[in-house]
Every structure is written in C-alpha cells, then in structure tokens.
Amino acid sequence: MSRANKRSVALTIAGSDPGGGAGIQADLKTFAALGVYGYSAITAVIAQNSSTVNRVMPIDASMVSAQIETLAAERCPAAIKTGALGTAKIVEAVADALSRLDLPAPVVDPVLLRAPERDCSIVRANARCSSACSRSCASLRPTWPKRRR
Length: 149
What we know:
The chain contains five helices and six strands, in the order αβαββαβαβαβ.
C-alpha cells in the first residue's frame, strides 16, 4: 500500500456509524484532516441515525483480531484509538492483539451509553473496556451521552 507508506498510519478500532458522525467513519475523517493515513478494524455494525441507535450487531471477536493482525502485518500503526468495542469478548480480543503484536498503547474513547436502552450488554462491555484499558492506555477519553430533554 504505497499511500500508507508515505505518511503516518493510525488505527481506529470501533463500530461503524452509517451516518458518518461517529465511529470509524468520523475517526477516518479526522485522521485524513490531520494528514494521517487511516486503518480501521470494525467491531460492530450499527443501525443508527443522528438521534437514534436502533440496532447493534457486534462482529465476532476473532474477526476483530484478524483485522488488527492483518493491518499490523502490513504496517505497524503509529497511533491507535478505540471507540465502541461492543462485547466483553471483543474487549479481550483487542487487548490481547495489542499486547501480542506489541502495538502502541491506545487512546481509549469508550461510548458509555450510546446503545439501544434494551441492550445493556453493550453498555456493560464498554464500561468494562474503559476500566480495563485505563490501566494501559495512552489516554482515556469517554464519550458522555447527551442529556435527554
């Protein structure tokens, strides 16, 4: 990948926001604006718009690991950012991959409450991620939910 070799690479590990306002889409836009080539490992496919999270479908943890391993084999990212990881298994898979591959400590940006209210497992997994990663991350930057009116 010649484009990646000409500039720094950053990896985002997060969910996909089809509206582009959050998740990997927003991270990749930010990387591009900063002149950084963006890699992404998708943790969940999310049905949402600017006001509603309708459904969350986590990707299998082994597939998340495979994405990270494949990208790191091509070029080690200079920086890593995580967003919504989705499940405890994904949290563990990401932590294992980052450690095993000797990748940089991530900036952790857990999405603490942006999940369908009926799906508390997403909320618990993201809280677990922020707790586990706060001991070994470069920075912890939680995304606080907007207050409902």
